[in-house]
Amino acid sequence: MSVDRNMQHLHPTIRTRVASVVSILNKEGLPFKVFEGYRSPSRQAYLFSKGRNGVAGPIVTRARPWQSMHQYGCAADLVLRENGRWSWDDSGQKRKWWKRMHKVAKAEGLEPLSWEMPHLQLPDLSLSELRRGYYPENADESWANNLASEIYRSQRDGGAPPVPSLLPDRPSLNDNPDEEQMVRSKVIARTGLNLRAGPGVNFPTLSVLQPNSFVYVIGQEGDWSQVDLEGDNLADGYCHSSYLRQV
Ligand SMILES: [Zn+2]
């Protein structure tokens, strides 16, 4: 299960704050980098299983899925990156580096945890509120889309919070009250179907509708259907009903 370092999956507020913390520290020669940003509920479940119920290794987290700020894109872990390797070393001189990291993080508006050195999160958030869908303000689509897809993915297992409301608005399907009454039909005439100016073969042909194309039937006159080609509820002409199949 791979570690997510895509900063776009973090809430934009922590995204910018973490970026400035890393930049400040790097300028001071302290090689902190984002080790993990967003953490999926399934990865959280995997980490929680470590050291429990016969799974090997030490216990690495107290949080079950949706119980860590990482699942909401509101936390990130900064770890030392030295000679191409991640290092949690806090011995000797390096103890000061981690202290400095916490200090800079606080100054930039992030909250460190005393029992989990690399962890930084947005301050003043409550997990119980996040679980009920009260998300931080100033969200953006890349954060919301990622969170929503993880929520949908984990809904089977239960415990998932509500989907963030920020997702791009789509007009309601009932915005056009007439649309419900419009019947979509497919042209099933092999060689195409004449669209006529009126309900009969004596009316002039306006155009020929391609086989397998779609029309909206908005009225009936005998064996003839009044059709709308564009879905704007305006009549474009008439077709013989026997070559239309409702879909
Ligand atoms: Zn963390």
TrEMBL record:
Residues 180-247 form the SH3b domain. This is SH3b domain-containing protein. Residues 154-179 are annotated as: Disordered. Pfam families: SH3_3, VanY. It comes from Photobacterium alginatilyticum. InterPro entries: SH3-like_bac-type, VanY-like_core_dom, Zn_M74/Hedgehog-like. It comes from the Bacteria.
